[in-house]
From TrEMBL:
InterPro entries: Alkaline_phosphatase_core_sf (IPR017850), Sulfatase (IPR050738), Sulfatase_N (IPR000917). It comes from Neorhodopirellula pilleata. The gene is betC_16. Its EC number is 3.1.6.6. This is Choline-sulfatase. It holds the Pfam family Sulfatase.
Amino acid sequence: MINQKIIFTLCVCIASSAACVSAENEAQPRLPNIVLMMSDDQGWGDVGFNGNADIITPNLDSMAKNGVRFDRFYAAAPLCSPTRGSCLTGRFPFRYGILAAHTSGLRVGETTIAEMLKSKGYSNGFFGKWHIGWVKPDELGTRGHYSPPSHHGFDEVFATTSAVPTWDPTVTPKGWDSKSNKVGEPWKGGFPYMHNGKEATENLEGDDSRVIMDRVIPFIERNKEQPFFVTVWFHTPHEPVVAGEQYKKLYAKRGQSRQNYYGAITAMDEQIGRLRDKLRELGVEKDTLVFFCSDNGPSDGAAKKGIASAGPFKGHKHQMYEGGVLVPACAEWPGVIKPDTKTDVRVSTIDYFPTIAGIVGYSFSSQKSRTIDGIDLMPVISGKVVRRDRDLFFGFRRLHDEIDGKSIISGDFKLLREAKPNGQVRLYDLSRDPFEEHDLAAEMPDVLAKMMQSLEALEASCQLSRDGADYSY
């Protein structure tokens, strides 16, 4: 069951990390570059390496084959903003207080991967959808505040606050007409991208994934001689999901919705291939660990229409079932991660921070020590760890709508409370019932009670963190 307080301490040299120096004056070997890529609302089944024969994703498939495929990789929440914070902090969203989309912003008291790596001499770049705080200082909103990537350790920033159209990101597309967005007019009233503190106004036409990668590539080229950390959070395939004609033609026999959805994913995959090619062109691919995942399961509407796919798993975005939190994920590090590696150990977005900390030899000072909920993925990838040793906790909350979805996985059992108002509490044995077809809540009251106690203890621990236990004032 859970450890209520896990004080995160990592020694400088870990088996999965770069080699330690053998003498005090010996030069440190170069620390690896780190790339974190994430798609938006892409379901577990919306990629070739998880068995989708309809969507063309050759670069992601190659990446998974050349490295590790995570068969049970979980987003920390079944929606966007909470998961994004978990990627950078290694902590459950309920611990740092971003419980839903467009809610609050990442606190400067949190320590991010970027801040960790800056202390190790890295140059850090953020590119794409931020969504854990406003990126424009004069942007006013009723449910959030200004907290851009530059406040959290990133040197180069090309970011939007939230979603944009996946084709022509500054223009409201057809089929997307509302009070604030009229077809053909500027998206949300102006230019959504901020580039190092200024509104970007050039090179914003066409595929949004290409627009993002056009800023990523020069950053990598400029920093190839030193360790770099690149976070690339694509908007694809979040709505408004639109593909260019050349990508829609690849799916000409499909309906318009699938042409846009599939085409946008293929366009994103093309840009992922462009990044991988650049690493090889520069000769730094063996010095670079590249991760990919999605931020949550497929969107409600696209999943219900059968356009997006959670594979064989139940549920979608905004639901606590596996389809809402289980996402496609892989990683590549030539020469370190063996090709064709697969693992079904349950891992998560909260595991990025401790994994990277282990690789670079980072530990918290005694003044900044805090609970880290994730585990080091390198022993999982190497096969030394075959079972997670701590619980996973998921959730999102909008109490004014009576939405309080929560879930905990402990061992093979999963307890969940449905997110909808007055949601049912359910219990599943994922080892025997991975698709959550048989609710065991009535059949196993003792297990249910024990899981409820674990959930309550974990949530209480998170509330202490959220209320200031982990921050100095």
